[in-house]
Amino acid sequence: MQILNYIGYFLVSIGAAFFFLGGLGILRMPDLYTRLQAGTKASTLGAMSTILGIGFMQPEWMIKTIIIVIFIAIANPLSSHALARGSHKAHQLPYLKDEKVGDAYEEEVENLQKNQKEEDK
Amino acid sequence: MDLFFIIIISVISLGAIFAVIRFIKGPTASDRVMALDTLSVMLIAVLVVLGFMMKRYIYIDVSLVYAVLGFIGVITIARYLEGGI
Amino acid sequence: METSVSKLNKFIYTWLILFLVWLGFTTTFAFAEVVTGILLSFTVSIFSFKSFTHAGLKSLSPKRILYMVQYFFVFMLALIKANFDVAKIVINPKLPINPGIVEFESKLTSPFAKMLLANSITLTPGTLTVDIIDNKFFIHWLYVTGTDEETTYREIAKQFEDILIKIYN
């Protein structure tokens, strides 16, 4: 099946290109959250496309590659979310460029803590 | 065909080098963990490509286990940063 | 919601899903493997069916599966678009970003649906879920265009939530 091979080559090339862009993204971005954005998205699509491409080239591996792809599609955003939340709780604040755009999460957490203290009293 | 895969692995490695630079520079621990996570996902893809080149099915299983372990590692470190595992 | 589904229903659903996962991992139909899989998934589902599912076998109805397929296509399109967006920003020498954290309120009730929505938001253009407190989603946005709740809801969550509400509410 020649056509499957060509689909595979195409997908693997796309995946490698996105891995490169993801690496560039996490090097260039100014703070953790923007880096997470660039890194997670690019590496997720890169891995999905590369591994699925290999699956197309070797059809008897297809089921296993699809399982890896599904796992990465679920696990990668979860881990980046956990990391963002953990760092925010560790008081690592995001880089803000515009005065008008704030950090809604910080305000909410402060409000919750204030309410908690009032309840304690 | 082999040349194609060598080019693919080189391009991914270039991305990996950027991630390693971020790992060395990274001002905070979270940056380092993030770079490590990206590196491990890159490694999974490279393992699958290598498995195809060498026609070894076992590489697919290895990459699956690596994906699970990397995920657990990142979640654990994130919980630690949050305060309380 | 939990009381309406019987224990047996939940148990069979858990067993079925775990057994399918086993088949996927082993990728073989050899007799010994299949029997081991049935026994192992039976043992694991005895301990885990209470927290594994809320809806039970209802999750496998054809309507839900059709919506899941539609959701999958919307999601893949958004993922590809997201990557090109981020790639454009990364390649641009000026790095045109305007980051900030915004919030919006979701109408979803089921925890699993919230998890799906949060994951999809993370993988769509320029957004990253930071936390969920009750129904409020906190999103780190790479290029903020408006901070009021309606704009953020329309721009970020609407396309996914419309489908998820049909499935889970």
Describe the structure.
Chain A has 121 residues and is an all-alpha fold. Chain A has one domain. Chain A is built from four helices and no strands. Chain A starts with a helix and ends with a helix. Chain B has one domain. Chain B has three helices and no strands. In chain B, helix 1 runs antiparallel to helix 2 and helix 2 packs antiparallel against helix 3. The longest helix of chain B is centred in the middle third of the chain and has 26 residues. Chain B is flat. The model of chain B has no long low-confidence stretch (mean pLDDT 88). In chain C, a hairpin with a 2-residue loop joins strand 2 and strand 3. Chain C has two domains: 52 residues, no CATH class; 108 residues, no CATH class. Chain C is mainly α and 169 residues long. Chain C is elongated, with a radius of gyration of 20 Å. The chains are: A mainly alpha (121), B mainly alpha (85), C mainly alpha (169). At the A-B interface, helix 1, helix 2 and helix 3 of A face helix 1, helix 2 and helix 3 of B.
- What's the N-to-C terminus distance of chain B? 47 Å
SSE string of chain A: HHHH
Low-confidence blocks of residues of chain B:
none
Bulk shape of chain B: flat
Q: What value does the average pLDDT of chain B take?
A: 88
Task: Let me know the largest β-sheet of chain B.
Answer: none
Total beta strands of chain A: 0
Determine Rg of chain A (CA atoms, Å). Answer: 20 Å
What is the averaged pLDDT score of chain A? Answer: 83
Oligomeric state as shown = heterotrimer
Major sheet details of chain A:
none
How many DSSP helices of chain B?
A: 3
